[in-house]
Amino acid sequence: MEGYTFTLLIPLILFATFLLIGLAGGKLKPIISGITGVVSLSVVSIISYITAYDYFFVNGKVDGVFGKIIVYDAEWLRFTDSLFIKMGILLDPISVMMLVVISTVSLMVHIYSLGYMHNEGGFSRYYSFLSLFTFAMMGLVISTNIFQTYIFWELVGVSSYLLIGFYYNRPSAVAAAKKAFIVTRFADLGFLIGILLLSSLTGTFDFVELTNVNGSAITAGSSVLFMGLSSMTWALILVFIGCAGKSAMFPLHIWLPDAMEGPTPVSALIHAATMVVAGVYLVARLFPLYALSAPVALEMIAYVGAFTSMFAAIIACTQTDIKRVLAFSTISQIGIMMVGLGVSGYAAETGLGFTASMFHLFTHAMFKALLFLGAGAVIHAVHTNEISGMGGLRKYLPVTHITFLVACLAISGIPPFSGFFSKDEILVAVKEKDSFLFYFESIVSGLSAFYMFRLYFGIFWNRNTTYEHTPHEAGMSMKIPLIILAILAAVTGFIPFSEFVTSDGIPFISHIHWDIAIPATIVGLIGITAAFIFYKKESDLSDKAAASLGGFYNTVHKKFYIDEIYIFVTKKIIFNMVSTPVAWFDRNVVDGTMNGIASVTNFVSEKIKRFQSGQLQQYAFVMVTGMIIIIALIFYFLKN
Amino acid sequence: MIQIKDLLEVLPLLIIAFSAIFILLLEVSIKKSETVIFGFSLIAILAAIATSFNYFNKEMIIFNQFLRISNASLTFSVIILISMLITVIASKSYIEKENVNFGEYYSMLLFALMGMMLMIFANDILIIFIGLELMSVCFYVLAGFLRLRQKSNESALKYFLLGAFMTGFILYGIALIYGITGTTNLTLIFSDAKVLTNYVFIIGTALLIIGFMFKIGVFPFHMWIPDVYDGAPTVVSGMLSTAGKIAAVGTILPIILAVNILNFKIIFSVAAVATMLYGNVIALAQTNIKRLLAYSSIASAGYIFVGVASMNEFALRGIAYYLIAYTFMQLGAFIIVAMLEKKDDGSRDYKNVDLDFYKGLGKRNPVIATFMTFFLFSLAGIPPFAGFWGKYYLFFAAIKSNQIWLAVVAILLSLIGVYYYLKIIVYMWFSESLEPVSEEKFSFSDTGFAATVLAVIGTILFGVDPNLFFSLFKFVTP
Questions:
Q1: What is the ipTM of this complex?
Q2: Which residue of B has its CA nearest to A622?
């Protein structure tokens, strides 16, 4: 459709910025690269806001439905004559919402990094990678087909790898980057097989066709059963494995805490607001398929999400590295979003879970980015990640303190901050579907209030640590993003989300359910109170509590030994018992054979070379012989 | 009857023909005419390319049924024109370097070009023969253009003797066909289904096809190729291995497809396998880069014959795609060899064409080494370069014709190719230079550089965007 072609500028500007800073970066002054990145992101943000305004308020709604608009779709790669891959831009409520989220958070991170990274080497490299990442993420959300999603999905993975490993002279950062890449790659294998299966069942990659409720894709593959489930269900489960890898669902979550080795603004952008929600986004993108043709897969998503949210929330209560607390909190919150999707039905008000999940994605992006940037400001001031090295910082960092408090209140679901509204909607949707999950998620919600305020009190109150250098507030470039995000985290809850983003595009009006909201708020307040008692003042209460839990506390602190289990499986079993013998076989048997073949080939080659003597008579003789043989062959075939 | 308006229908051919003659006039009438002639040839070829695109999707038989314009023939002729364009650009500094900067060189190129286009557009066996001879005679002269180099003379003589020998067979084949059908017109010949099963007719067609297999360099008629490409001026070798091969393929392919009903897939398949095997295996042992490229060109002929052997509606697409990719990568590689060759010092042999010379080229001359790497990757069939898609569509055609074994063998044999192409890349980037680093004199004003850039652009463009090819040549995908 015409009128939105300007959205093409979004990926183009970002890619051009990446090339510009990446190629010319070495020659530019670092600050110029930074400013270029900020300016380009500002332009992209403005375009995104215009798009969102135009889509939601002017042109997007046709006959009361927010439809899918294909802005641009060009054939890009042809495999065979009927199978080709397109590249294009698809606008619908969720992609437009993601445009706003990504550009806002990315812009904030770009500005923030001007201050945060200015003493680091490789400033230009950093900004070029940021642009590349934003480009890839934008390309992912505006994909018109699942293959385009896959391509950008991988590109997002690569740029995240580059950014996590930004401090490449730090071995732990390099190891973390590798771990993130390998774990998500492993999950992507499932995704790729899922895509292949899905496309062979439905004969298309196209999202519009795949999710057309009246189309053939919905019913495709429902009759072919494999191990009791339809092949469509299997395809969607495989796709979800990819989503679980990117969105750090149990048991593929292990890379996210380690990824905190990257620069903190990167964690804010990638590991809080954008990349890690790509899995949620993709499930939402394929939602009609999940809801209508594979309810089993959807149920699985709900339970995986619920388990992950509880699991990560428990671990978050015991971590002492503030970024790791935030990482586990992110895992837990994404789990909650998955639950929202998992319990949702399709169409109208039964799709409340879908709306709520997207709503939570939106508000979470704002307050979690704020938490990470606030944590960055704290780390910037005290030069440590450990909570034990902090305390009493409210006097030194007033702006960080207030904005951090806003974010903590938002994530704890205290009205009127944004998290309250989105979490309320999720809980309402969960309760309608499954009361067990409802109580389960309420506990998670209380836990999140507890661990966030544990962090808050630990950093800003508690004991009055004496610091070697007096901590001081960072410059304007870091303060402004904090303030803007704090305002967003406080007010975005008032957006009537269900009037814009719904599972089938038809807006409806949702109300706050006070019967659920009030208990939920009380649970949050209990969590905060508990944290207040344990951590407001310096005391040994928390240590006593930990000691009374004994072995359980240690297990949790060690993140349930999941990493150790992975290492045991990969190192001991796969490496020692499979790889080593295979390597021996490869070195001694396969290589030997190959070397043998190579030397035989070379020997033959040297021998035949002599045929090419340069003598014309011989050449002519060979030619005539060849001709006679061919004609003899022709006669032979004619006779038969 | 031939009508005036027929002339307008073959504008590209006319432009080339008149330019070739006009260049001879320029040569005698202006002093120091070489640069003018160079420019004029370029304009003529560009004009011919531009006008060619007017005739797509207008299938027609004209000139008293002597010529036939179809999308396929136009595609081949445009690919040849592109090959010639790059050759002409690269030639300027090469013939200056070799001290043979004469205007008739360009005239020879254009006459050869005219012959090639004539035989591709021909709808009559005699016209094919006239075009073939026009092309071949010019090729003989061009191969021996470096009069003072013995190797060049030897190359021309060998090419001429074997070429003349083969011409005899082609003529004999034509005579047999005429004897059975009483006509030389291809439309008439193939319209008679009874004739197609006649033994004498089949022998005649076989001889004709064998003659063209010689020009393409298919086993066992490939033996002239290494000697000729090795001795000929390097740019000319590049042209012979691209334009010359394309013209032969473009001419014989419709004939092979027309006698398709005889179903001799197996003979072509065996020839394809033998050619790929021979070219790839012997290329392994080469120490001279011109000979190595010559063997790689034999291997390429094998790949093309994989397409020919599949004899289905996908064959044409695969062959045409491979040929345009091949034009850019093979010609580009030859031109780089030409640029790096040492200036003429009156010696018998070419200098700096040993593989050892390429050791450490990446350090001495990173730009050229990068370009060479692109061409070699493309020749090895590694995406995202054009060569990958060429092979892909060729092998795809083989699979579609139920000759999966052929596709598998072709892929295995092309893996041998990867080895020796990579060997050069390893030499260029990872070996210590045997030459002093500052020795090399190379300037960007060398027209060979411009030609290489064109070839690089083509190699990458057709690799990144395969659809470009289909939209350019109005291919209706089967």
A1: 0.80
A2: B220
